[in-house]
């Protein structure tokens, strides 16, 4: 049922730019078909990333579980998680996750202006001190080498409880995994974010 989207992406040349062709719901082993369908439902289109991970079903299942884990604890807002993931994806330069997290941020209540300001959060007055402390962590964890300083951590402790800090770190680490995986395969944005204005 989602095959026309993949055909359209192939016609546009998007699939052909990816280093290996993603598997579709019809090509994957039966045990991961529900996982692929769940990924497709989240994005509303067939996920190129999930289609590539499907070559190794255990990696696909583990990756989907890892991606869902931070949101299950509900210690942080979905908006903050998406904004932080978007910043991590910007640093890694992963077009797919920049796009996907911009869409997630929008769906979680972020304005187009706030989404556009993520890369310039230091000089923007849109973000709270709490958000800025979290962005500082996202940048420190996403650069190579990782360099989370005592100052970064002290700033976090001013705004977040220990369990929230664990979720922040896990969210950013997970996004680095996903973004770096996609960069290796040259997975591009799929047009998920559509500005409201």
The Rg value, from CA coordinates, equals 17 Å
Task: Decide which structural class fits the backbone.
Answer: mainly alpha
Write the H/E string, N to C: HHHHHHHHHHH
Query: Helical segment tally?
Result: 11
Number of strands: 0
Uncertain regions: pLDDT < 50 for 5+ in a row?
Answer: 1-15
Set down the secondary structure blueprint:
Blueprint: H1 3-11, H2 14-17, H3 33-43, H4 48-53, H5 57-73, H6 78-92, H7 95-107, H8 112-116, H9 129-142, H10 150-159, H11 162-185
Report on the structure:
This protein has 197 residues and is mainly α. It has helices at residues 3-11, 14-17, 33-43, 48-53, 57-73, 78-92, 95-107, 112-116, 129-142, 150-159, 162-185. The radius of gyration is 17 Å and the shape is globular.
How would you summarize this macromolecular structure in one to three sentences?
With about 200 residues, the chain is mainly alpha-helical.
Task: Summarize this structure as a short list of keywords or feature phrases.
197 residues, 0% strand
């Amino acid at each position: 049922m989602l095959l026309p989207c993949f055909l359209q992406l192939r016609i546009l040349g998007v699939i052909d730019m990816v280093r290996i062709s993603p598997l579709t719901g019809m090509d994957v082993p039966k045990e991961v078909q529900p996982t692929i369908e769940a990924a497709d439902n989240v994005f509303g289109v067939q996920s190129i990333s999930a289609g590539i991970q499907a070559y190794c079903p255990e990696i696909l299942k583990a990756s989907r579980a890892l991606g869902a884990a931070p949101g299950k604890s509900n210690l942080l807002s979905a908006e903050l998680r998406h904004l932080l993931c978007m910043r991590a994806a910007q640093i890694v330069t992963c077009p797919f996750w920049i796009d996907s997290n911009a869409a997630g941020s929008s769906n979680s209540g972020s304005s187009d202006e706030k989404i556009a300001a993520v890369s310039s959060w230091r000089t923007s007055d849109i973000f709270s001190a709490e958000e800025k402390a979290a962005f500082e962590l996202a940048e420190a964890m996403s650069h190579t080498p990782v360099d989370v300083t005592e100052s970064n951590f002290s700033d976090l402790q001013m705004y977040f409880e220990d369990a929230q800090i664990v979720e922040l770190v896990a969210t950013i680490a997970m996004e680095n995994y996903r973004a770096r995986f996609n960069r290796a395969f040259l997975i591009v944005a799929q047009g998920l974010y559509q500005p409201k204005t």
